[in-house]
Amino acid sequence: MVSGTGPKETLKKYNIPVLSDLPGEGQGLHDPPLYALVYSVSVTTSSSLINATYAAQASNQAGPLTDPGTNELGSEKLPASSRANLSANALSLLSQIPSDWPEIEYVTFAGDLSRTITAPGQYATFGVGLAAPLSRGNVTIISADTVDRPLIGLN
User: Fold this and answer.
1) What's this model's pTM, rounded to 2 decimal places?
2) Would you say residue 53 lies in a domain?
3) Is 50 inside a domain boundary?
4) Which residues of the chain have pLDDT under 50?
5) Which residue intervals of 46-143 are DSSP H helices?
6) Could you list the residue range(s) of the whole structural domain that residue 110 is in?
7) Residue 102 confidence (pLDDT)
C-alpha cells in the first residue's frame, strides 16, 4: 500500500499518491498457524549458516546446506480420536473443508524454524499447523513509512 496501490481512503489518510484504488487490497488474509517444537540435535543443520564457511558454501550452491529449507512435509485429516473432543461448532467448521483436503500439516526443518533460539548449537524443528484455516483476516499500513510494521488482524 505504501507504493500507492490499495484502498484510496487508507492511502489518502497517510498522504500516499493513489496509483491504483484497490479496495480489497490486504483483505482475505488466511495465514495458517504453525506451532514449532525446536530440539537440539547432534548433526549439522542450517543452524550452521551463522558460520561463514557454511554460509559461503550455501551461497555458492555447494555443501550440505545448499537447501536449508523444509525437508519433509506431510498432511492428513484430523484423526477421529481427536475429533471426539471437539465442540459442535468446531465440527461444523471442519465440515466446510472438502473431504479430499487435509486439515493438518506436519513440517520438519533442519534448523531453528522458530528463529528464537540464541544459544549456539545445532537445531531441528518439528512443526504442526492448520492446512485449511477458516478464519480470514486483513493487513493494512499504519503510516507511509516502510519501516513501520503493518497492522495484521488474523481474526
Assistant:
1) 0.62
2) no
3) no
4) none
5) 52-59, 80-83, 88-94
6) 31-43+69-134
7) 94
